[in-house]
């Protein structure tokens, strides 16, 4: 079976970058931790919510790298000498990546009750009509 790409469609011009973004998203290696929600909060805004119980604000970092929102978490190991009889709460690091379309900007990030909320906004699309003059050759 032949792999279909956007380049296979001659009427789809200039979408090579979109194809690269789709491939990068497929390879991002996001595992199931931490769980997250994505909700549409209005016609032009979104909210990503990650369940980050046990992480403090200082344990988390949020960056935008090459149109990719990257959220990382690394809990600092306590220096106290605690002895666990059972350790069911993992203190593992994570990285979650979300590819952002052109025109999507990252707003504020809010920590609330063990949930990290990251707000995104998308620029309102403008309708552009362009008339091309035909010249005699």
Architecture overview:
- The chain has a domain at 31-77 and 89-125: Immunoglobulin-like (Sandwich), CATH 2.60.40.
- The chain is elongated, with a radius of gyration of 21 Å.
- It is mainly beta and 137 residues long.
- The longest helix is centred in the first third of the chain and has 11 residues, at 16-26.
- The chain has 1 helix and 7 strands, in the order αβββββββ.
- The model has no long low-confidence stretch (mean pLDDT 85).
- The strands form 2 sheets. A 4-stranded antiparallel sheet has the order 1-2-7-6, with no helix packed on it.
- Helices cover 8% and strands 35% of the residues.
- It has one helix at residues 16-26, and strands at residues 36-42, 45-51, 60-64, 68-73, 94-99, 104-112, 115-122.
**Arrangement of strands in the largest sheet:** 1-2-7-6
Note the beta-strand portion.
35-45%
Nearest-integer average pLDDT: 85
Number of helices: 1
Total strands: 7
Question: What is the helix fraction of residues, given as a range?
Answer: under 10%
Write the CATH architecture name of the domain at 31-77 and 89-125. Sandwich
How can the largest sheet be summarized?
4 strands, antiparallel
In CATH terms, what is the fold-level topology of the domain at 31-77 and 89-125?
Immunoglobulin-like
Q: For the record, give the distance between the C-alpha atoms at the N and C termini, rounded to a whole number.
A: 45 Å
Q: What is the CATH class of the domain at 31-77 and 89-125?
A: Mainly Beta
Order of helices and strands: HEEEEEEE
Structural class: mainly beta
Rounded to the nearest angstrom, the radius of gyration is 21 Å
Shape: elongated
The low-confidence parts are none
